[in-house]
Structure of 6-phospho-beta-glucosidase:
Amino acid sequence: MGKEFPKDFLWGGATAANQLEGAYQEGGKGLSLPDVLPGGKERMDVVNSPDFDFKVHEDKYFYPNHIGIDHYHHFKEDIALFAEMGFKCYRFSIAWSRIFPNGDEEQPNEAGLKFYDEMIDECIKHHIEPVVTISHYELPLNLITKYGSWKSKKLIEFFERYAQVVLNRYHDRVKYWMTFNEINSAAHFPIMSQGLTNANGGADKKNIYQAWHNQFVASSKAVKIGHEIDPNLQIGCMILYATTYSYDSNPVNQMAALKANQENNFFCADVQVRGHYPAYTKSLLAKYNIKPEDIDYTQEELDLLAKYPVDYIGFSYYMSTVEEVTRNDLNSSKGNLIGGVTNPFLKSSDWGWQIDPEGLRIALNELSDRYQKPLFIVENGLGAFDKPDDNHYVADDYRIDYLREHIKAISEAIDDGADVMGYTPWGCIDLVSASTGEMSKRYGFIYVDEDDHCEGTFKRYKKQSFDWYKKVIASNGADLD
């Protein structure tokens, strides 16, 4: 058994448009970044090659994001299943290229806006609070190929127009928003959040920091727009958080862990939450031979950041990481998204991600102490090989065990004093993996009959974890058995 959570705690689940909607050329949608990302474990190798051309090559690759789980045509069925689990909220994203197919149009695509009208209304019909990510790893492709992606200041203008449209359209039904998904992930794989890779400047850290600055400004503009429309709207940032340990008590490794924390976990949040660049910015830039004056910024932009910080911190938590810089005889934790060495005290998932529930409690304490803002765990979950029986039933005790321990950690962090708004486990229904483009890396409470090449019946089936999570929500976290 667990402890009951705060009365208004937002239990739910999370997805992203590009990973489940499919229908990539329906309803006036334009091409987006994920539409040119091939499926398979070699996805990132292909993307990081210097000759990656941001085009579809169907003669060489398969593109699972084109189909997703066909949520575009199944969203009513899927949301009904979420409601059956008792979701209080559902975090999803709007596909920018459904609203502005090329990203730089003057007028939005009405068919795209109507689709999200229907999705939002369906949530509300089932008493589910929509939680919307404005940009979740799905930049319109034209903004990459024509303008050079987020290293161009032109994208601030295009994002502002996009944010203005969606905030005006849905503000009466959507209270909770986030601007950029895992904005800090560009420290390790800038292709997803910034549209930058080795082929278009992603290897140059100056471009990464310029893109971040432009995104910070765009995010503040969205906060400004939202608060002017309705001061009660809650607009947050969203970061990838990996609790960072030193391998041992060697002061050199302790300092390495501190520096890694600053660069990987805190830098983007420091700017978006506190409204200004942190004191360590100059030394962080110097690490890559960048001077502050190398970044194109204005005082007006800095004033905007100061005036319009975010209201809360959304974050993903899947793993922790370990820093060790004094030895070369330790195994690197290659499965972990941001590297580090293997933690001998932890087990790993099927994909090599180290499982650390206590690290989530630490993360919540660290973020709470640093920012004194509400925290929203908007991604957490176990990607695993699920093996359905002849009746398509998945006995996923391993997923239940993972989630149970992380929910206990959240409860303990709340007792520690952290202000936690809610919890939306990632991939509440099976969807295409962002990192590998696979369906076989499954996270959901709902099994979708579909393989890595999008072959199958696309029927939805409840896993064992479906009824378990339903019980957790019904008891407000008190019943975890």
The mean pLDDT is 96. Residues 205-229 form the longest helix (25 residues).
